[in-house]
Amino acid sequence: MKKPSFALLFFTLSACLSILTLLKPAQLFSDREQRNLNQFSDVSLSSLYDGSFQAQSEKALSDQFFLRDGFVQLQRHFQRLLGTRIINNVWIANPQLYQNSSPVDPKQIRQLSEVLNAFAIKNKKLRLDFLLVPTANGVIKNSLFPMLYESQREVMHLFTQQLDPLYHTIDTLKVMDQNKDEPIFYQGDHHWTTYGAYTMFQAWQKERGFNDQVKYKKSIANDAFYGTLSNASGIDRRDTVEIYTPIQNQIKTMVTYVQEQKRTATLYDESKQYSANPYELFLGGNFARIDIQTTVENDRNLLLIKDSYANCFIPFLVPYYHKIIVIDPRFYYDSLQSVVQTDHMTDILFLVNAHTLFQDSALYNLMNEEMNAK
Q1: Alpha helices in 234-353 (DSSP H)
Q2: pLDDT score recorded for residue 181
Q3: What single string gives the DSSP state of each residue in 88-152?
Q4: How large is the C-alpha radius of gyration of the chain?
Q5: Which is more confidently placed, 87 or 63?
Q6: Could you tell me if 256 and 284 are in contact, meaning their C-beta atoms sit under 8 angstroms apart?
Q7: In angstroms, what CA-CA distances link 190 with 114, 186, 339, 344, 363?
Q8: CB contact at 8 A, 51 and 198
Q9: Nearest alpha carbon to residue 164 among 204, 128, 196
Q10: pLDDT at residue 84, as a whole number
């Protein structure tokens, strides 16, 4: 009996997988990679003519391929066996995973500091704070990737030297260095942990002159967190998400998601607790503007301009402000000055991590437009 050829077996297997790919329900989002997946598009004469249908079909087939996650994991496994140290822009060490970062042009730092300084001068009567937080790249030095450590610290120093003294700052590198042997960063995600945020809050609170009047109890929200770096690289790093709850908490909050027209009485979105990204437990993720009204009886109103590092930091701010307005430059396109005036802000705090500040132009774009607005 004649044995089937390998070519025939390969063709049959490929045909079966292609059919299964077309028959299975389309997957909209990859929990593993934390991104939207390409979808098959409807065919039209114009899309066939200009080639867009073929191009989109190739992307969709790659993203929707049957058992795709298994094949991706297998590919990542072979890469690790071959000694690959960078997978999908993630730098792999043991146990820490690191974000890839591009070189930063000093001109970019100068332009950013100029618009921030102009904003400070315009609001010099208010209390101004700037917390530039290092990521694991700039704190947990690894002998395999010393350039990640050195480059982040260098650009942080260069930026803070150019920042106007109107901004109150603290040595965030020193704060994190003093605690680098503690779990201040997730091993498989790009964020700091709640412990890291609380450590920084305590240092900032002292500089701000607030009394250390609130005591907290820690609780585990999720002990199986595989973060963005773990998912992108296929390297399993299991982290734990914690929340800090005031032991004696009589402060109530009303949290308004302005664009979404949604209100809630909590800073935590419990639907995210066991999701693919439990870090979104804090405020439900990132939104253009969130207004937090508290029952704190003082006249301090805070405008917080931030990235996602601030999400687990915000609960520590609540006991000290009557109102907190949270702006994320990546999604916000309105006037900051109108918020300052209309909502009677007394304090402005920038809280951003070094990677986002220098690798993403959102804050510069917002501040540049703000300063050039008539």
Answers
A1: 314-317, 336-342
A2: 96
A3: TTEEE-SS-EEE------HHHHHHHHHHHHHHHHHTTTSEEEEEEE--GGGTS--TT-HHHHHHH
A4: 24
A5: 87
A6: no
A7: 28, 7, 30, 34, 19
A8: no
A9: 128
A10: 72
